[in-house]
Amino acid sequence: MLTSKWHMHRMGLIDFWYYTNEEFYFKNGHILLRGSNGSGKSVTMQSFIPILLDGNKNSERLDAFGTKARKMETYLIDENSTRDERIAYLYLEFKREDSDIFKTIGMGMRARKNKPLDTWYFVIEDNQRIGKDIQLMEHNLAISKQSLKNRIQHQFIETQREYMARVNQALFQFPTLDDYKESINLLVKLRSPKLSNSLKPTIINELLSESLQPLSEDDLRPLTEALSNMDEVQNRLEVLKQSQQAAKSIQNVYEQYNYALLDKKSLQYIEQKNRLCHNKQLINSHFYRGVS
User: Fold this and answer.
1) Exposure check for the chain: N or C terminus, fewer CB within 10 A?
2) Predicted TM-score (pTM) of this structure
3) Quick check: helix, strand or coil at residue 102?
């Protein structure tokens, strides 16, 4: 069973904004976009992260400052566009870090003047790769929604919520969609260019509270058992300390008793020894008198 991490490997734009068919590769999940101010670095990145992680294309997602200045459809057809209709695709390819196994997530969009934006999604998990096994362009135009559906079958997704669930299941595996949503909301807040201006302790506490997953009973059980065991060990330690103190008291009394008994025995020994010596002297004295 593979347990290595998924890394972002490649992102692509098909007939989106000023891009016709462009790819950007990541190095171990990292990418560096270099260019002057206004060259499109922010627009390029915000078109992928976090939009492709959950499919939420609200206008505030397109601006790191959280404003609603632009909508997704304006990147397909703006006020000065000569086109009445345009289909575009965004995709993000992931790769296992130790093998050639790939998964690709993405979304398709169809913009028409004076009409709502039509969107659809896909999560490709059969190791087919866009631009190699699956083509999203024909005759220099992005393929239609139905054409994509015919090509990838069950990997085609209609709704944003189902797409979000499939992305979570395929790549991140948060226990619930709410947990996954909280992690994405944290990404949105952390990317703010002026985050440091309002980074007060209360804001930090709020960010952590919203981003950290709540612990389940199964998660907490080892901790509560450990705390309970610590209390039990502490109680046993107190009992042992009391027993040790009582044993020391008994030992002190018993040592005093032993010293007293030893003193008494010593006096008896000395007394008997002196008596023995005295008797021995008497015997010797009588013996010598008899001899003389």
Assistant:
1) N
2) 0.68
3) strand
